[in-house]
């Protein structure tokens, strides 16, 4: 692709022949936390049908993959749209297993407790915990990260490491932006705490997703044969670029206000933002369509 080639493409069809596999973000691309984007899941279904391509959904959800599959079905995303799912919850579980038997301070809603299923995990208190497992805010409808500042100052003083199961700073829920665990991890680090993050944009979740592609296809494929699709610059796009993967940038996600009209983004604004962030994309489209 030359420097003067159009960045905005009509849809996934324009890129599909070049890639044997797709790693696709979920929240912001396939649904908005309330309902599915029909054209998006139809695009992935069509990609699989027409190219025999493999689709692995890669999400910063702090829960095991089987729960995300159930959630997708409730939202109306059919299983024809993907081959499998890899979550930041899955890769976080691998790290948490090294803390089996030790008290862990859980920060996040009760709905995220399945991340500890079938593990010898002891939920501790702020006084006896040896590590923090952060999956989100306790109440992301009413709280903000600043509500945790004084609590975090005490935990940092104790020298506790935070393991962050969801690097996202915010996600869309309907027409609102909701704070995520990544915002708490950023605050904890700003105060002086140690943070380990395993989801996008970090390497472990990409390694897990690429292994999953190889498992499904029965053979390894080179990274230049994999296309990453996502809407988050600091997570989806930065992560893919850091792993030498081509990117289809979905502009009508969390950054939609930055590029002009949501469904008719201005290419020069997209290009300028990518340069500003030190990132690149193979192509961009407002919403995922075939």
Explain the overall architecture.
By secondary structure, the chain is α/β, with parallel strands linked by helices. The chain has 2 domains: 12-89 and 201-285, 3-Layer(aba) Sandwich (Rossmann fold); 92-197, Rossmann fold (3-Layer(aba) Sandwich). The protein is built from 8 helices and 15 strands. A 6-stranded parallel sheet has the order 3-2-1-11-12-15, sandwiched between helices. It has a 5-stranded parallel sheet with strand order 5-4-6-7-10, with helices on both faces. A hairpin with a 2-residue loop joins β8 (170-173) and β9 (176-179). The longest helix has 15 residues, at 203-217. The chain is globular, with a radius of gyration of 19 Å. The chain starts with 20 loop residues before the first strand and ends in a 5-residue tail after the last strand. The relative contact order is 0.17.
Task: Summarize this structure as a short list of keywords or feature phrases.
290 residues; Rossmann fold; five-stranded parallel sheet; 31% helix
CATH classification class of the largest domain: Alpha Beta
Number of domains: 2
Which architecture name of the largest domain does CATH use? 3-Layer(aba) Sandwich
Q: Using only CA atoms, what is the Rg?
A: 19 Å
- Oligomeric state of shown chains: single chain
Helix content: 25-40%
CATH evolutionary superfamily of the largest domain: HAD superfamily/HAD-like
State the CATH topology of the largest domain: Rossmann fold
What percent strand?
A: 15-25%
SSE order, as H and E? EHEHEHEEEHEEEHEHEHEEEHE
Query: What is the strand tally?
Result: 15
- Main beta-sheet strand count, sense and barrel state: 6 strands, parallel
Number of helix segments?
8
N-C termini distance: 20 Å
Spatial arrangement of strands, main beta sheet:
3-2-1-11-12-15
Runs in which pLDDT lies below 50 for 5 or more consecutive residues are none
- The dominant shape is globular
Keywords: Hydrolase
Protein name: HAD superfamily hydrolase (TIGR01459 family)
InterPro entries: HAD-like_sf, HAD-SF_hydro_IIA, HAD-SF_hydro_IIA_hyp3, HAD_sf
GO molecular function: phosphatase activity
